[in-house]
Amino acid sequence: MAYEGMLAETVRFAGNNGDIIGGYLARPLGSGLHPGVIVIHEVFGLVEHTKEMVRKFAAHGYIALAPDLYYREGPGEPEVISAAVRQKGGVPDSRAIGDLEGAITALRSVATFSGKAGCIGHCSGGRQTLLFACNTKNLAAAVDCYGGRVITDELTPTQPKAVINMVADLGCPLLGLFGESDANPSPEHVARLERELGKNKKEYEFKSYPPDTGHGFFADYRPSYRQESAVDGWQRIFAFFGRYLS
């Protein structure tokens, strides 16, 4: 989609341990202050679909930044890089947290940043959104769109602790958007996460969409896309961020 009144560009900033990583940033033009949104890409990497989301947030008045969590793998086709990352067990959680903290710092360097930031992610990015929200004090709101492996007994060197066991440390309100026919996270896992949030007296909103809606329903470039659910989801996202980031 063509947008006006914004600047969108590829950027570099310091991530985990000071490593320089890439990202894609879009912001409204003008001198007014705007809240920020960190957009975490799916398992497929920083593809055009993610960049379009960044521009969509900028069109709605946010300074949006999508960090490239696969940047260290070097240049190449997204599917090749994504496969290489998966073969290594995924992005290490500790490194992802450091890169996302670096993204917050990068937002702070933008003169028109208001000081409030949210985070949103889909698929693996949904899990990393919740992971980050449980390990930072720098978010005012977080949106988890069908993040899988939040509940797992398969701990690995890159993911040494299940995110559900971090929920007690969640530091901001959470919006969760899920599909009832999704297998990861399954409706049972969504219900268990909701119970854990309630037990820890966390502020959250969950919405699960009808049985024809599964994983990846926001991805309008894939067969998994469900327009009605996605449109409703976007309305909820902007209402949620409008409430907590303004």
Write a structural description.
The structure is a single chain. The chain is globular. It is α/β, with parallel strands linked by helices. The model has no long low-confidence stretch (mean pLDDT 97). It has one domain: Rossmann fold (3-Layer(aba) Sandwich). It has 6 helices and 8 strands; from the N terminus they run βββαβααβαββαβα. An 8-stranded mixed beta sheet has the order 1-2-4-3-5-6-7-8, sandwiched between helices. 33% of the residues lie in helices and 23% in strands. The protein starts with 5 loop residues before the first strand and ends with a helix. It has helices at 48-59, 78-87, 93-108, 124-133, 187-199, 227-245; strands at residues 6-14, 20-28, 34-40, 63-67, 113-122, 141-145, 174-179, 204-209.
